[in-house]
């Protein structure tokens, strides 16, 4: 007779245990606590001090950041946050949607007793708080899901950096898996295609073009090897194939340029503003790089770019919502999670 000795596993609280328990942590970018100058300044200061986001020398960057950027930008951004703020819940849409994604995903895993929670790379709730919650539930195996369909060192990698930075102070570490980017996962492409079809199906005037606007990135980061642009192209190619559209009707652009350097092109705002003159007066815009609506989709595209398009002679401008907490989005998150939890459930 052969006896297999399975050593008892240690729980994060130190107690021995036999069975293991997986948990899921959704991670998004972060957002200010309120729209006031101080909160927005604190958020931007943390975000823009991240050396994954601003790669230049901090000796040169910090005086510019602390002296100029954090004097001017919090007021301007605070006003933009005010325009999109969820006043009933007193939080930004990014925060609200990330929480509802987490709650809906938890329902999908309730029968298997897998806890799901959420956290933000910058601001609250912090990665430390999210991890602590799962560890207090006895999770000794954690799947961390950075909610970025396209990889970038400025988003995916810094989320993972923060996770491991927190774990540096944990004595009994849980085992960790991190979700890779999913730029052409069939469930993601299906959800985007369905949201485009739903978004334009009942419009009185069908759009002549669908502009697909991703968050931009400094060209230099791509030149140094960041695979973000290649991932955006993977999403575009899969989406065009799914919808039977071309590079002329489903057009790739990049938004949210920050600072004076060259970023990925074409830039969304000037591209869209030039369309009416070329006879393209009815358009729809989708922002598939964002898993939830946020300041960049609702205000930059939904207000600023829309107003300029209409002012230049555009007639209809339809902003297609992000996947947010739609059933298709929760299906996608569940599929991704089950794939990555393989062997742990
Ligand atoms: C050098 C600056 C920035 C890089 C690089 C960058 C990359 C990047 N960001 C996202 C997703 C989001 N960014 C958001 C807001 C935002 N981004 C920057 C700057 C860079 N982003 C700033 C200064 C801000 C703050 C808003 C403002 O002041 O205009 C958000 C929204 C947050 C919210 O609360 O709504 C998201 C989401 C990606 C995917 C990305 C890399 C490709
Ligand atoms: Fe950004
Ligand atoms: Fe912006």
Which CATH class of the domain at 186-319? Alpha Beta
Order of secondary-structure elements: EEEHHHEHEHEHEHHEHEHEH
Question: Can you give the helix content as a percent range?
Answer: 40-55%
**Strand order, sheet with most strands:** 4-3-5-6
Question: Helical region count?
Answer: 11
Distance between the termini: 29 Å
Low-confidence stretches: 1-8
Tell me the Rg in angstroms: 21 Å
Number of strands: 10
Could you tell me the strand content as a percent range?
Answer: 15-25%
Largest sheet: 4 strands, parallel
Looking at the structure, the CATH topology of the domain at 186-319 is: Rossmann fold
- Give the overall shape, derived from the CA principal axes: globular
From the coordinates shown, what is the CATH architecture of the domain at 186-319? 3-Layer(aba) Sandwich
Class by helix and strand content?
alpha/beta
Listed once per kind, the bound small molecules are:
ligand L6N33NVT, fe (ii) ion
Mean pLDDT: 95
């Amino acid at each position: 007779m052969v006896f297999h000795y399975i050593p008892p596993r240690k729980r994060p609280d130190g107690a021995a245990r036999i069975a293991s328990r997986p948990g899921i942590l959704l991670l998004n970018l972060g957002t200010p606590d309120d729209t006031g100058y101080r909160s927005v300044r604190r958020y931007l200061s943390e975000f823009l001090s991240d050396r994954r986001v601003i790669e230049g020398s901090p000796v040169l960057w910090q005086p510019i950041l602390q002296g100029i950027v954090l004097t001017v930008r919090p007021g301007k951004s605070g006003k933009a946050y005010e325009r999109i703020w969820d006043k009933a819940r007193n939080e930004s849409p990014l925060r609200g949607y990330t929480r509802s994604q987490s709650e809906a995903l938890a329902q999908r895993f309730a029968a298997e007793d897998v806890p799901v929670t959420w956290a933000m790379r910058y601001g609250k709730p912090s990665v430390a708080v999210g991890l602590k919650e799962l560890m207090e539930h006895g999770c000794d195996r954690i799947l961390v899901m950075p909610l970025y369909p396209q990889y970038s060192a400025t988003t995916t990698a810094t989320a993972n950096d923060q996770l491991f930075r927190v774990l540096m102070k944990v004595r009994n570490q849980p085992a960790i898996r991190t979700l890779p980017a999913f730029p052409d996962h069939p469930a993601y492409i299906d959800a985007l295609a369905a949201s485009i079809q739903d978004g334009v199906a009942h419009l009185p005037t069908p759009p002549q073009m669908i502009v697909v606007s991703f968050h931009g990135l400094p060209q230099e980061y791509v030149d140094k090897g960041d695979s973000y642009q290649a991932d955006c192209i993977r999403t575009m190619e899969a989406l065009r194939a799914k919808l039977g559209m071309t590079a002329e009707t489903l057009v790739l652009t990049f938004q949210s340029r920050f600072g004076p350097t060259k970023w990925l092109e074409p830039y969304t705002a000037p591209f869209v503003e030039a369309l009416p003159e070329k006879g393209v007066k009815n358009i729809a815009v989708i922002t598939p790089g964002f898993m939830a609506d946020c300041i960049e989709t609702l205000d930059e595209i939904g207000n600023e770019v829309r107003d300029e398009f209409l002012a230049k002679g555009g007639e209809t401008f339809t902003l297609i919502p992000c996947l947010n907490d739609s059933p298709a989005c929760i299906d996608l998150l569940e599929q991704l999670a089950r794939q990555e939890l393989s062997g742990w459930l």
